[in-house]
Amino acid sequence: MDNQQPGILPPIPVQSRYLEFSAVPDRFTADNLAAIQEIVIDDSVVIGIGPGLMRRIGVEIEGHRAFPALSGPGVEIPSTQADLWVWLRGTERGRILHASQRIEALLSPSFQRCRMVDGFRYEEVGLDLSGYEDGTENPKGQDAIEVAFRSSQVPGLDGSSFVAVQKWQHDLRHFSTLPTMEQDYIIGRRRSDNEELDDAPSSAHVKRTAQESFSPEAFVLRRSMPWADRDGEGLNFVAFGKTFEAFEAQLRRMTGLDDGVVDGLFRFSKPLTGGYYWCPPKLDSHLDLTLLGL
Predict the structure, then answer these.
(1) Which DSSP state fits 243?
(2) Summary count for the chain: helices (H), strands (E)
(3) Considering only Cβ atoms within 10 Å of each terminal Cβ, which end of the chain, N or C, has fewer?
(4) Residue 278, Cβ neighbours under 10 Å: how many?
(5) Nearest to residue 276, comparing CAs of 63, 81, 39?
(6) What is the DSSP letter of 57?
(7) Under DSSP, is residue 294 helix (H, G, I), strand (E, B) or coil?
(8) What is the arithmetic mean of pLDDT over 69-83?
(9) Over residues 20-39, mean pLDDT
(10) Which residues are 120's β-sheet partners?
C-alpha cells in the first residue's frame, strides 16, 4: 500500500497547525470540493473530510459518522464536529503560517475556518506538557499500517484512514501541586523512566486505555502534540485508525461508561472539542476523491 497520505505515518514533527473548517451553507456546492484537489499532498499536510460535508453531496462511507457527545460520572465529552480538517506539519513555523494562509484562501468563500490550534513537539521523544511521554504504545512498522489504514478493493477507499481529533486543556498548576507518586498513579507510569506501574489504581490512564485489554483489541495510531496559547495549554489529541471503533472503545472506558471508573486524566484535564474525519487516499500528488465523484 503506497497510496495513503504520507503525513500520517511519520513521527510527530517539530511544529504543526491544525485547522477545522465549516462549509458556508449558501456558498457551498459539490463543485467546491474541486478546490481541495488543488492542494499538493506530501508529508507536510494531512486532510480529513467530515461526515456532514459528505452528506451534503450525497455520499456515504461505511463507518463514517459524527463525533459522539458522551457523559460519564462527573465528566463530559463534547462534540464540535466540523466539515474539513487540515493538519500542517513541518519544522519552520513561518512556512506553516504561509501554507495555512494559502489553504484558507483556496477554500474561501465556500469554507470558513472555525478552529485553529498550533502544536509543537516537547522534547525529542514527544512529551505531553505534564512531562509524561505520549504514545508509548503506538504500533510501529507494518502494524501501524494495518491499524491506521483501510484495505479495500473499492477504488478511492483503499489506503484511506479515519481520524479522531480532540483538543484537551490541562490544569498544570493543579497537577504540579500533587505529589510525584500521585501524578505517576494518575498516568500509570513513572515520569522518571516511563516504566508502567503494576500497582497503579484501575483509574490510571495507562490501564484505562491499555489497547490490548479490549476485546477486540483497540489499537490506534496516535499523533498528538502539545499546544499553548493565551487561553491555556494542553494536548491536541489525534488518533488514526481503519475505523473509529478502537478509539470509541477507549473513550467509553475513560469516561466510566463501561464500569463506572473514570480515567484519572480527568483530574487535571478536560476535552474542549471533538471531531471525526475521513482521510482519503492520494493519487499521484493529490487527494483521490473518486468516492466523491471527483
Answers:
(1) S
(2) 7, 14
(3) N
(4) 24
(5) 81
(6) T
(7) coil
(8) 97
(9) 86
(10) 15
Q: How far is Cα 227 from Cα 225, in angstroms, rounded to an integer?
A: 7
* Three-class secondary structure of residue 19 per DSSP: strand
CA distances from residue 3 to 112, 275, 281 in whole angstroms, order as listed = 29, 24, 6
Calpha distance 62→114 (Å, rounded): 26
Interatomic CA distance for residues 15 and 8, integer angstroms: 15
Query: Is residue 134 within 8 Å of 127, Cβ to Cβ?
Result: yes
CA distances from 206 to 72, 124, 244, 250, 256 (A): 18, 21, 20, 11, 14
What digits encode the pLDDT tens for the residues 89-138? 999 999 999 999 999 999 998 999 999 999 999 999 999 999 999 988 89
In angstroms, the Cα distances linking 292 to 31, 84, 130 are 11, 14, 41
Q: Strands 282-283 and 221-222, how do they pair?
A: unpaired
d(CA 99, CA 106): 11
CB atoms within 10 A of CB 105: 8
Instruction: In whole angstroms, give the CA distance from residue 243 to residue 29.
Output: 28
Our measurement of the distance from residue 117's CA atom to the centroid of its chain's CA atoms, rounded to an integer in Å, reads 12
Cα dihedral 187/192/198/204 (nearest 10): 0
b/e 121-140 (16+ beta carbons within 10 angstroms → b): bbeeebbbbbebbbbeebbe
As a whole number of angstroms, the distance between CA 37 and CA 286 comes to: 6
* Residue 199: partners with Cβ closer than 8 Å, 6 or more residues away: none
